[in-house]
Input
Amino acid sequence: MAIQLPPLPFPSNALEPHTSARTLEFHHGKHHKAYVDKTNEAIADSELKNADLLTIVKSAHKSGDKKLFNNSAQAWNHDFFWNSLTPRHAAPSGNIAKLLDRDLGGLAGFKKAFKEEAVAHFASGWAWLVQKDGQLVVTSYHDADTPIVHEGVTPLLTCDVWEHAYYLDYQNARPKFLDAYLEHLINWEFAAANLKS
Ligand code: FE2
Output
């Protein structure tokens, strides 16, 4: 069975004015869909044709199949990104708030570190909040690279910093997109649900 393009977890206009419906329709309906379609083309006649997406990403990474890795990891990262966003943004609470205080200087420290990491990331890639060895860490990976193929790293939140994520709304102003993400769009409930106990 082919992998599917998951629907957005909210209507395409739900993140306005911070991210336009036009951006989401292109980003999900064209970019994300293309990664899903190319993954399906690549696995059509292979032993991975009935595998789930996570298995495909890990298998492509292990075998060194760069084309399959890039497309399948991008499909996985985009699904994780949509779930990292919400139209009902609220400040983090409970255990994740305590861990932010302990490891990153609270919410303000997290925002500063995440913005710096995402803005400084050269060219295309993804900024992440991850859990590593029990600690919260802000990091970024290039192109399609993803925490799920890194030993002992659990992804909690991501922000797509490929230019297609923000160009229609913010042109080349990546810092403005990061401000919108950090102040209005993060789904802290999703991040909290991803915490390893
Ligand atoms: Fe993207």
User: Anything to note?
Assistant: The two ends are 33 Å apart (CA to CA).
